[in-house]
């Protein structure tokens, strides 16, 4: 691995080998998502506990302080919306020149395996890897499922992650599922867990994060389960304790309750 690639990966993956990415890229297909109408204000109290931001270039330039920012993973795919015909019909939205101009630590794009646009999104990934490897920029592949959440089982996600790694992704973001070790065991590059829709309880979030870390994930890329929580800082601290301090789900939940009570006073 060349120096530039290693340096950029070290910005987003900490020395303990783990990471906590804060995604605020939802607006690229959802519009002004609840609690993310003003993304710069939403993340301000959360930044101390995040290792990197996953964000589009528009929000990066308009809402993120370039002097005090965390390392950036730039979302570089898009072209669809929630009201469009098919979320899987994405393309690359950002040039390598723009990626370099913004001085980001990594880039991320979605692939939609098992959809009508599987080939197009996988070739987009390969093309992005080809360009980014020339400049030492890591690519994170996001194993997106669009509206078809029922596909999120170990067999399907293991397939997606392995294909993304085979095409050159340096990191793969995917969903937690039952038997998650089948996903991580078959993927030769680091796996980061996505959050998906908000969980029903706070403890449920901590339990799946803890389980995934025990089964081989290096970290998380959680947004809605954090900044849509009534106590986002408490949730951020609790999850940070699982990722970087080896806390159990129960210990993290106790920390969450302590921080929540402080916030109420």
CATH architecture descriptor: Alpha-Beta Barrel
Give the CATH topology.
TIM Barrel
Top-tier CATH class: Alpha Beta
User: CATH-wise, what's the superfamily?
Assistant: Aldolase class I
| Element-by-element helix/strand order | HEHHEHEEEHEHEHEHEHEHHH
Mean pLDDT: 95
The count of strands amounts to: 10
Helix/sheet category: alpha/beta
Major sheet, described briefly? Answer: 8 strands, parallel, barrel
Q: Ends: how far apart? A: 50 Å
Which percent bin holds the helix content? 40-55%
Based on Cα principal axes, name the global outline: globular
Gyration radius (Cα, Å) is: 17 Å
What number of domains?
1
Count, helices: 12
Low confidence ranges: none
Strand order of the largest sheet: 1-2-3-6-7-8-9-10
Strand share of the residues?
15-25%
Tag the structure with descriptive keywords.
10 strands; globular; two-stranded antiparallel ribbon; TIM Barrel; 265 residues; alpha/beta
How would you portray this structure in words?
With 265 residues, the chain is an alpha/beta fold. The chain has one domain: TIM Barrel (Alpha-Beta Barrel). Helix content is 43%, strand content 15%. The protein contains 12 helices and 10 strands. The chain has an 8-stranded parallel β-barrel, surrounded by 6 helices. Helix 7 links the parallel strand 7 and strand 8. Helix 9 packs antiparallel against helix 12 and helix 11 packs antiparallel against helix 12. The protein starts with a helix and ends with a helix.
